[in-house]
Automatic annotation (TrEMBL):
Annotated InterPro entries: BchE-like (IPR051198), Cobalamin-bd (IPR006158), DUF4070 (IPR025274), Elp3/MiaA/NifB-like_rSAM (IPR006638), Methyltransferase_Class_B (IPR034466), rSAM (IPR007197), rSAM_horseshoe (IPR023404), rSAM_sf (IPR058240)
The name this protein goes by in its record: Radical SAM superfamily enzyme YgiQ (UPF0313 family)
Gene Ontology MF annotations: 4 iron, 4 sulfur cluster binding; catalytic activity; cobalamin binding; metal ion binding
Domain of life the protein comes from: Bacteria
Entry keyword set: Iron, Iron-sulfur, Metal-binding, Methyltransferase, S-adenosyl-L-methionine, Transferase
Transmembrane segments: none
Start and end residues of each Radical SAM core domain: 154-372
Keyword flag Kinase: no
Keyword field contains Cytoplasm: no
UniProt organism field: Geobacter argillaceus
Length: 427
């Protein structure tokens, strides 16, 4: 029997679809790792290889985030027309299984690893069920090493993506992570992470920990950092801004090879942070915290959510000024997006403020709800202006001109974002 794993393309003409650097889907490689050996496994990533392959697979398994869902459904129709059985998982199908079931034969809701072998056995026996939902979350000791050989020969920026923890102890209103993985913070044994890293080690290797918060358990992260010291990896991950408050901790990350962290600043307004449940952030200390990151050789990919109820049109120039003053190396400015399964969607539904369920527009680049402090057009235009301004050469010069070891990552990242934005504007 054969299964083809499918990662649908991001919509073209959108920032994520136009970015030249691509990362592989770790979740599909993880599912491949729990696929019984009698199954032959293939991977098609439309972001890398644009045309659907002619496949002799018996089963097609698609994963999709919400903006990819319309494309996932079109691909499901394509494969079903060719006589394939199609199953779908990922955040979107997990939150809206009934919608997905109108387009595919079966849905995997939530974490897939525990339930996937059962789905395959049912398929072989001709008794595929409409929905597979695991009764429990996987023990982190049971997570097998992802089958990265599936990424071979594909033009990814790099394939050393790995996961050490799942879940987040916090529950921000706009975030889908807790709804999917639960609030319990689960950790893989450090030994097994280090063994996996050892297998990936090459000269000047980069690694990216896809964890939503690598540093939520100090003891665990300190043990990991101690084990990584001297391994020679340059790595990136996610951490909250209050990581800077603990100098010993952030120093250990830098000494373990950390060159960059994705940091959710979300807002410069303390009241807005409180309203969205971002309890790790104090906007008053942002400037100082950013300097602490930089002083430890760690660049910041910041994220600032646009369009929360406290935002007015002044927010766009304010953010640009802050990013330049704080010398934020790179940033994204997602428009608040009411993803299915999130608290913010529930609230905006109650308030009658959802404007669109066109899922391809749930790409954090389009306004899909009625903002409070400005018009839809002001939010959309402010988003475009801020991105253009932040990725202008003048702003890059102000933010990253001083040599610093993370420049090797952030200079190409700025150029990559700038090029993607320009391509997007041309489409
Ligand atoms: S935004 Fe970050 S801190 Fe907040 S719930 Fe999501 S992962 Fe956790």
């Amino acid at each position: 029997m054969k299964v083809l794993f499918v990662s649908p393309g991001w919509p073209k003409g959108r920032l994520w679809g136009e970015l030249g650097f691509k990362f592989p889907s770790l979740s599909l490689a993880a599912l491949a790792a729990v696929t019984p050996p009698e199954w032959e496994v293939g991977l098609w990533d439309e972001n890398i290889e644009p045309s659907p392959p002619a496949t002799d697979a018996d089963l097609v398994a698609i994963t999709a985030m919400t903006p990819q869902a319309p494309r996932a459904y079109r691909l499901a129709a394509h494969f079903r027309a060719a006589g394939k059985t199609v199953v779908m998982g990922g955040f979107h199908a997990s939150n809206l299984p009934d919608e997905a079931l109108q387009q595919v034969d079966s849905v995997v809701a939530g974490e897939g690893e525990l339930i996937w072998p059962e789905l395959l056995a049912d398929f072989r026996a001709g008794r595929l069920q409409p929905v597979y939902r695991s009764g429990s979350l996987i023990e982190m000791t049971a997570i097998p090493v992802a089958r990265r050989e599936l990424f071979g020969g594909k033009k990814y920026l790099f394939t050393n993506t790995l996961q050490t923890t799942r879940g987040c102890p916090f529950d921000c209103e706009f975030c889908s992570v807790t709804a999917f993985y639960g609030r319990k913070y689960r950790k893989r044994p450090v030994d097994s992470v280090l063994a996996e890293l050892e297998g990936l080690r090459r000269k000047n290797s980069f690694a990216f920990f896809v964890d939503d918060n690598l540093v939520a358990d100090r003891n665990y992260a300190m043990e990991l950092f101690a084990g990584m010291r001297g391994m020679g990896f340059k790595w990136l991950s996610h951490a909250p801004i209050d990581f800077a408050d603990d100098r010993e901790f952030i120093r250990a990350a830098g000494e373990a090879g950390c060159v960059g962290l994705f940091v959710g600043f979300e807002s410069l307004n303390q009241e807005a942070l409180k309203a969205m449940g971002k309890v790790t952030n104090s906007s008053r200390s942002y400037l100082e915290a950013a300097k602490v990151f930089r002083d430890h050789g760690i660049g910041i990919l910041g994220s600032f959510v646009l369009g929360n109820d406290h935002d007015t049109p002044d927010v766009f120039p304010q953010l640009l000024r802050f990013c330049e003053k704080a010398r934020i190396e790179a940033a994204i400015f997602p428009i608040l997006t009411p993803y299915p399964g999130t608290e913010v969607r529930r609230r905006l539904e109650v308030e009658g403020r959802i404007l669109s369920n066109a899922w391809e527009d749930y790409d954090m680049e389009h306004v899909t709800f009625t903002p409070k402090g400005m018009t839809v057009a002001e939010l959309q235009e402010g988003y475009d202006w801020l991105n253009r301004s932040f990725y202008s050469f003048g702003s890059m010069y102000k933010r990253i001109w001083k040599l610093h070891r993370s420049v090797q990552v952030f200079a190409p990242m700025n150029i990559g974002f700038r090029a993607a934005l320009r391509r997007k504007m041309k489409v």
